[in-house]
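Quick note —
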Amino acid sequence: MRRLPFALALVLAACGSTHTPAIVAPVATASPADASASPVVAAAPRVTVPTPGPARDVHLPAVRSTTLTNGLAVQLVEYHTLPVLHLRLVVRAGSSTDPANLPGLASLTGDMLREGTTSRSSAQIAESIEFVGGSLDVSTSADVTVLSVSVLRDHAETALNLLADVLGHPTFPQVEINKLKRRETDRLQQSRNDPSWLTRRAFYQGLYGENHPYGRYDTTPAVLGRVTRADLVAFHRARFVSGNMFLTVVGDVQPAAFDALLARTLGTLRRGTAPVVAIADVPAAAARQIVLVDRPESAQSVIRIGNVSLRRADPDWVPFTVANQMLGGGVSSRLFMDLRELRSLSYGVYARMGENVGASQWFAGGQVRTAVTSDAMHALFRHLECLTTEPAPDAELAMTRSYLTDSFALSIETPGNVADLVSSMRVYGLPADYYDTLRARVTAVDAAASLATARRYVHPDHALVVVVGTAAAPVEVGPPCAAAAALPADATFAQQLQACQAHAEHPTPRETQPLQEVLRSFGPVRVVDLEGNTVRELTATAPVASPIHARCEELSTTALQAVAHSGQH
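Predicted structure written out below.
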């Protein structure tokens, strides 16, 4: 609702445009005398669909870089399509800069910036930006805190004055801190019932360890109980200085006039630099580890399989993106086509790459019905094995590269998108022509390069596996159906699916085992409660054969799509 005035302002601005309106031919209407006549519909002329032209590189607009007298770096992009302004003030004060004993301090500090300054109350801050139809948002990630402002061009000075005020003169009122603590306590209590949040917490802590900057996921009730106003003030004083932040501006501005405006507003921010936080490398895991978060009464299991991978600025990012896209980047990927479209194990299964200054995370997984957790685990590991052992077919690789290059243009279609991309380039230390040359680099990725990076950054035998579900819940094991079990060993993947589908009306009950016992066949299991405390540790049992076997050539996107389109499942 807070964005409604801004959207309305854009509509009004568009209505006042001086562009010549399009000429629309009048629509012929029937007279009353013709009302009873049979309508005559003229045949539509046949039009040959034009063939697509050659793909072209998509270039970001030119970026003008300057530095204010106080040391604040500024990146400005002129974007005159709409009379709007998008600002991204990025502070290198993410959760990785939290003190080890106060996880969540960066996020708490960011949240408090809008709760009062030396000249404005919390209500006045909100009124100032909403009155001019703009927005002011604050978000904190692992590496940075970002203040995002969107406003009409005519209100640029109002927005910059407000931004300078909340950045440079927050007062951290104790009454507002108390309110924030209560809200955060309630949020954490609700998060204990959120399987996705439980999965992320266990995954980050398990990958990095709680002493690593990236392993301190979210705050805790204990921290909220002991964090003080003095902690927030000290963090702000150390981190929110001009040399530890930069500004990205994208919009309808004239650089010379805007430079003077920046000098009067953000140029007054306190000069200084902040201590650098070293992001240490994480040693590779010696073996597969499984963490089961026991969540009673869960109807589903949330599965996440992954490991520490590469930095965002690593040259391998592009070829690994191609490999990840084939595996689980979207609805036409291998995981989605297999586990959802063909086997109906889940509504959605994906693979994702984290973006960090230091070593990021890679994972594959999704939510599945508890009963089919074993089937889903077998399928996931089989796909990871194929991704890291067999080169992708040419047709699948071509389709994946085409999707990545064609969809990139959509990521820069608004000035807000451009502001985000330009900011991210500086955060991660990417070269100035990174996105200008992206299409050419994606197109150059061949099967060998994709396979090499998959082998380098996907480690199924040394992965961390996090499952959130009910430890004692029954899970189906063994052949998916009697018909599939009766097929010869060399039966194709499609034949096995078809056999089970043919007997779906008369299913044979399958053997079941408790979830925690099923997971032991994939590796040693550490069972934790909703607070993350270890309840018990279970040794691994002998591996169990997958209920459905498939050759790697049957698990490419193109092969799976062929099965789906043929109806042989």
